Amino acid sequence: MERTANVRVAAVVALVPVGLLAGALSYGRVNVVPTFDAVPLDVHLTFRVALFAANGVVMPVLMGVAFAGAVWLAVAARGRLRAAALAAVVLNAVTAAVTRFGNVPVNDEVRAWLATGPTPDFAERRRYWGILNDVRLATAVTAFAVLVVALALARAPRPVEVSR
Q1: Is residue 5 very low, low, confident or very high in pLDDT (cuts 50, 70, 90)?
Q2: Which residue windows are transmembrane per the record (predicted)?
Q3: How many of the other CB atoms lie within 10 Å of CB of 80?
Q4: Which of the four pLDDT bands, split at 50, 70 and 90, describes residue 148?
């Protein structure tokens, strides 16, 4: 595959899942989290645990594909686009790490609350989860923005003039 074609394909493979991840986390922050807060606690816990079950499959796959796509773009590209792709790789890694080592353990606590009832510090644990959620949202959106800006600024290859 020609290098410019490889970079174009890598750009799409990076941009789409990185954008989907940023969008999914944005939707959660803007719509799902306020809904959790608006319903009674038993409804909140039941819905949240059901949502975790679905997200436990979808989000790790999406994060992995976003990371791999950004890595491919970093390998295929040169110059500023490579630097932007490397930044997206790091930001996606931070998003995944915060999720795995921050949000998921709190989610496991919440899952236990469904059976036993919330612990006395449940409000603090929910606030902590919210902070972690905001961090991963910021890193995911920043990764997407970095790629969008870098791709918008990337120079298109100049057409080759053919003499007649």
Answers
A1: confident
A2: 50-76, 135-154
A3: 13
A4: very high
Closest CA to 135 of 96, 84, 80, 79: 96
CA distance 7 to 14: 10
Structure tokens at 55: 């997200």
DSSP conformation letters of the chain: --HHHHHHHHHHHHHHHHHHHHHHHHHIIIIIHHHHHHS-HHHHHHHHHHHHHHHHHHHHHHHHHHHHHHHHHHHH--HHHHHHHHHHHHHHHHHHHHIIIIIHHHHHHHHHHHHH---TTHHHHHHHHHHHHHHHHHHHHHHHHHHHHHHHHSPPPPPPP---
Extract the tokens encoding 150. 């870098």
Q: pTM for this one?
A: 0.89
